[in-house]
Amino acid sequence: MKIIKADIIVCSPGRNFVTLKIYTDQGIYGLGDATLNGREKAVATYLEEYCIPCLIGKDPANIEDIWHYFYRGAYWKRGPVTMTAISAIDMALWDIKGKALDTPLYNLIGGKSRGKILVYSHAYGKDIEETVDVVGRQMEEGFHAIRAQSGIPGIDDVYGVSKADKPYEPAQRQLPKESLWETEKYLNHLPKLFKRLREVHGDDPHLLHDAHHRCTPVEASRLAKELEPYHLFWLEDPVSGELQEGLRLVRQHSVTPLAIGEVFNSIYDCTTLMTEQLIDYIRMPIVHGGGISHLLKVAAMASIYHIKTGFHGATDLSPVNLAASLHFDMAINNFGIQEYMPHQPVVNEVFQSDYYFDKGYMVIGDRPGLGVDIDEKAAKKFPYQRAYLPVNRKMDGTMFHW
Ligand code: CS2
Ligand code: MG
């Protein structure tokens, strides 16, 4: 079998997505998600200009060799753009392999370790009481695990909390929105939210929270310690992940489980976090972390250190990535949980998939490969529009983490 062509489909059904489609001489094609929120065209250009010309003529069966061709052959290794491009190629090649062997992806990477995949939803409210109500509604919808984010008195625009009653989509079709932030207000507020959540909903629901890179190690240590009585399933991105050893201090002060990695893009971003057991969940997703091939290596290393996967699954990762993630989640032993923010209905006009939500879990079908397709005619109805993620400043105007 030979690769004869590859296209990049950039579309915007409610938000931007980039999809790689690799064609073979035997009529089989494979799909890969190449979406990098707010930097979509960078990945599309990297693929178009530097990867696709080298793909033509290659045997798509040689996934490992092709992975290293684009990783080691890049010379300028790693980084979100390069690794998202490699991830998309890798996903598409595994999709082709599954279709050629007429078997779903999970069968190619170990078969079923479980029949259904535990997921967590996103609950948010303008204040504690509204957030508590939304968590209750999502429990009624069947979710066993729920991420809770709430508005914070004195802060106008808070990560993870949508102001209008439309779904939370941080990338906006405008120049970066500037938010103002004050960590002290956040640290004072958060324990009250989870105290109230446990008072109202008891010990059963798995409660998660995303600190979104906002604390210093000592602030994160205080927060993780003060959240201990509320037994979170995880506290996510407590500290900006560039300084892996920054988590040592948090680990010394608290047994609140920690999850990091949605902004990572290779195993090298988390080797210290793993070997020193500084985290409990690794979040690096298939679409940004080097694809299925690389995440298999990451998950294997994580399993040595009692670390489980907890893949990023926000709506800015396409249904192609979600399908690949669910196959992966189904197969590996050290699966932890999968983030599940349902895409808007308009996205389903472009992407067709065979996964579905069932009482707190996701179930994926047995279609060959990833089991997802793209309707290119429909995609053309939703042309790309540049969008930016917000930027964040402290109240005095100092640039900070968003
Ligand atoms: C968040 C994301 O889902 C999460 O855990 O961190 O919403 C993140 O902000 C976006 O994916 C950024 O594009
Ligand atoms: Mg996050």
Under CATH, the topology of the largest domain can be stated as TIM Barrel
Look at the structure and give the CATH class of the largest domain: Alpha Beta
Number of DSSP strand runs: 18
Principal-axes geometry comes out as: globular
* Structural class designation: alpha/beta
Per CATH, the architecture of the largest domain is Alpha-Beta Barrel
Q: If helices are DSSP runs of H or I spanning 4 or more residues, what is the number of helices?
A: 12
Distance between the amino and carboxyl termini:
45 Å
Ligand list: D-mannonic acid, magnesium ion
Strand fraction equals 15-25%
Largest sheet: 10 strands, mixed
Round the Cα radius of gyration to an integer and report it.
21 Å
What is the helix fraction of residues, given as a range?
A: 25-40%
CATH superfamily of the largest domain: Enolase-like C-terminal domain
Task: Give me the strand/helix succession.
Answer: EEEHHHHEHEEHEHEHEHEHEHEEEEEHEE
Average pLDDT number: 97
Uncertain stretches: none
Number of domains: 2
Secondary-structure topology with pairs:
Elements: E1 3-11, E2 17-24, E3 29-33, H1 40-55, H2 63-72, H3 80-100, H4 105-108, E4 117-125, H5 128-140, E5 145-150, E6 178-181, H6 183-201, E7 206-210, H7 217-227, E8 234-236, H8 247-253, E9 258-260, H9 271-275, E10 281-282, H10 291-304, E11 308-309, H11 319-331, E12 338-339, E13 351-353, E14 355-358, E15 361-364, E16 372-374, H12 376-380, E17 391-394, E18 399-400
Parallel strand pairs: 4-5, 4-12, 5-7, 6-17, 7-8, 8-9, 9-10, 10-11
Antiparallel strand pairs: 1-2, 2-3, 4-15, 13-16, 14-15, 17-18
The chain binds D-mannonic acid and magnesium ion (MG).
Residues 210, 212, 236-237, 262 line the site of magnesium ion.
